[in-house]
Amino acid sequence: KVVCVTGASGFIASWLVKLLLQHDYTVKATVRDPNDPKKTQHLLSLDGAKERLHLFKADLLEEGSFDSVVDGCDGVFHTASPVAMDVVNPQAELIDPALKGTINVLRSCAKFPSVKRVVVTSSMAAVVFTGKPLTSEVLIDESWFSDPVLCKESKLWYVLSKTLAEEAAWKFSKENGIDMVTINPAWVIGPLIQPTLNLSAEVVLNLINDTLQQLMKISYRLVDVRDVANAHIQAYEIPEASGRYCLVEKDLHYSETVKILRKLYPELPLPEKCADDKPYAPSSRVSQEKVKSLGIHFTPLEVSLKDTVESLKEKNFVSF
Ligand code: NDP
């Protein structure tokens, strides 16, 4: 079977490519710059890459850029989208590549009947910002859809980019008869395959360097990158899979995460107590009911955190 992965050099996509190769797929992977070894070397050295990985140059904002890649594929995994919080021009840096890029990829999928299913990497960002109150009694599920007006008013540009992209993807896929499934992960952590530091794993680095306790005094919904990659494959392989799948292992306050890290690494000078160490109260819960049908058994957060830290050490982003 031949599949395409867009944005293959990224954190999640690198794991997806690795697992797809392990599952004997032939992978047509898109990157923006195939000549940049930082974006390709880690992919080319994966098991099975020599025989079954093919790199293509494609850009989300170039119309028709994905045609030659998608042609002949049975499935397409669209993961490429900018992940950034501090941007100067949200339209150009986030919204255009997310929204126009997704439609660009789907347009290529609609052209080639070989494509049987498309799995799009959306986000919990496109789920939770509805304006409904988030209390511990609330159970969030796949029926929630973030409100773009609210995202815009709150200047949540990344959240807006993912919401608009998913909304447009559903409209386009329905109008064009594309069998599409979305995976909506929370904040993704876990070991890095790529040599560069991506934004979501950087949060763990910031946590262990946060001797001043300046960061993340909020709750984070977390999930392991290996579970996210696996969910993409299951959503592609299981014929009955449909709609959206929320992927959240745990909703954890900063102080709880620090507590786990302190237990794992007593040698780290992590604070006993956070400056705003309020009692832990999850803001809400996210249903794992639907994602169970993909056979996902979530990696426990303790394991994800340990493997992230070990990976950050191995790649010299931190030393202790
Ligand atoms: P990375 O930053 O590691 O990867 C993003 C990928 O998108 C890179 O390969 C990047 O290519 C590509 N990309 C960005 N802009 C363009 C463009 N204009 N044309 C082509 N490719 C482009 O991020 P993640 O792996 O974390 O994220 C992957 C997907 O998962 C995204 O859709 C993100 O929104 C989603 N997601 C991520 C979460 C997380 O916590 N990490 C949570 C929920 C969803 P290049 O390498 O060339 O820059």
Automatic annotation (TrEMBL):
GO molecular function, one term: oxidoreductase activity, acting on the CH-OH group of donors, NAD or NADP as acceptor
SUPFAM superfamilies: NAD(P)-binding Rossmann-fold domains (SSF51735)
Residue ranges the record marks as coiled coil: none
InterPro entries: Epimerase_deHydtase, NAD(P)-bd_dom_sf, NAD(P)_dehydrat-like
Key word RNA-binding present: no
The keyword NADP is annotated on this UniProt entry: yes
Name assigned to this protein: NAD-dependent epimerase/dehydratase domain-containing protein
